[in-house]
Amino acid sequence: MTGPLAVPRVRLATLPTPLHPAPRLSEAAGVEIWLKRDDLTGLGLGGNKVRGLEYLLGDALARGCDHLVTGGGPGSNWAMLAALAARLHGLRATLVCYGDEVPAVGNMALARTAGAGVRFTGDADRASVDRVVEEVADALRTAGAHPFALGRGGATPVGALGYATAAVELAGQLAAAELGPASFWLATGSCGTQGGLHAGVAWQRLGRVVGVTVSRPAAECVERVSALARGVADLLGVPDTAGPPTVVDGHLGPGYGRRSEEGDAAAALVACTEGVFLDPVFAAKAMAGLLAAARRGEVVGPVVFLVSGGAPTLFTTL
Ligand SMILES: Cc1ncc(COP(=O)(O)O)c(C=O)c1O
Fold first, then answer.
1. What pLDDT does residue 5 have?
2. CATH 3.30.420.300 for the 19-48+156-314 domain, yes or no
3. Ranges of the chain whose pLDDT falls below 50
C-alpha cells in the first residue's frame, strides 16, 4: 500500500493513461496539441479524480477509517468516484449534496448503484455541503464509527499528490515523444488537480501549467492552487520551486455545472477532429479557453491538454 513516495496509496487507476498527438485539432487551433487521456483512468467511467483518490483512500485506510463522507452537487463526478473507491476498499460511503432532493440520474444514479447513502442539505449554497459533511461525520463518530470526512473535490495536499505523481508519468511520456517543455492546460474547479500538477510540473521541470477556471473566481483559484502546491511539495519533501500559478478566467458561461455555447463548440471541434468527447462542465470550457488564447496568438506549443473525464455528465448537463 506504500507508493514510491512513502505515502500510503491504493491502486485504483489503470496507468499510464495515453498521451497522444491531436493532429487535426492542432491544425484547426494553429498550435501543436497533445491529449492526456485521463478520461481513461479506468475506475468507473474514469476521470481525473481517480488519481487523487489513490492517496486519499490510502490515507483513510492507514487511519483505520471505515466510512467515507464527502459531497458536492447532485451531478458531482468527484462524489460518485469517491463513493465507488470507498466501497471498493470496504468502506461505507455517505454523500452530501447541496439543494433539495432531485431524481437520481447520471453520477447520482451511479453513486447509489455503488451503495452510497445520500443526504441533501436543503440549501442551494454549495458551501452547505462542507458544513453537513462535518455534521454527518460527528454523528458517525458519536455512533462509534470511524469516518473519513473530505470537502468538495477532495482538494487537499494528499489528494493533490495524484497529479504530482502524474507529472512523473508525463515526464517519461514527453521524453519518449521527444517533446520539449510544454504548457499543460486543464479545467480548474476545486483546484486540487491544478495544485498537484503545478507542483509536479515544477518538480519535474516540464514547463508551465495553465488552468481555466470553471467555477471559482480566478484570484481565489490562484490562492488555492499556491497553497495546495506548497502542501504537495512538503509531502514530497522537495523545495517549492513552482512560481505563481496561472488561472484563466472568462469561460464559465452561464454558470458552474451548466453548458456554455463556446464550450459546446470547442467540444464539437474535438469530437469531429479527434473522436474524443469532452465533458460540458469542465474540459469543454477549458478547451474553449485554450482555443481562444490560441486565436489571440498567445499560446506556444507543444500544449498538453488534460482530458479529465466526467463522462456521466455528457448525458445530464443542460
Ligand atoms: C471531469 C472533471 N474535470 C476537471 C475537474 C476539476 O478538478 P479540480 O476540482 O481538482 O479542480 C473535475 C472536478 O470535479 C472534474 O470532475
1. 64
2. no
3. 1-4
Whether the model clears a pTM of 0.90, i.e. scores above it, the answer is yes
In ligand 1, the atom with minimum distance to the C-alpha of 283 is: 3
Whole-number Å distance, alpha carbon 308 to ligand 1 midpoint, is 7
pLDDT in tens, 136-165: 999 999 999 999 999 999 999 999 999 999
What is the whole-number distance in angstroms between the Cα of residue 143 and the centre of ligand 1?
33
* CB of 191 shorter than 6 A to ligand 1: yes
For ligand 1, say whether the CB of 317 is within 6 Å of any of its atoms: no
CB contact at 8 A, 97 and 73:
yes
- Please tell me if the CB atom of residue 78 comes closer than 6 angstroms to any atom of ligand 1: yes
pLDDT tens-digit map of 62-119: 999 999 999 999 999 999 999 999 999 999 999 999 999 999 999 999 999 999 999 9
Residues whose CB falls within 8 Å of the CB of residue 182, separated by 6 or more in sequence, listed in order: 34, 174, 206, 207, 301, 302, 303, 304
Active site residue ranges: 76
Pick the CATH number of 50-153 from 3.30.565.10, 3.40.50.10860, 3.40.47.10, 3.40.50.1100: 3.40.50.1100
Q: Is 156 in the pocket of ligand 1 (CB under 6 A)?
A: no
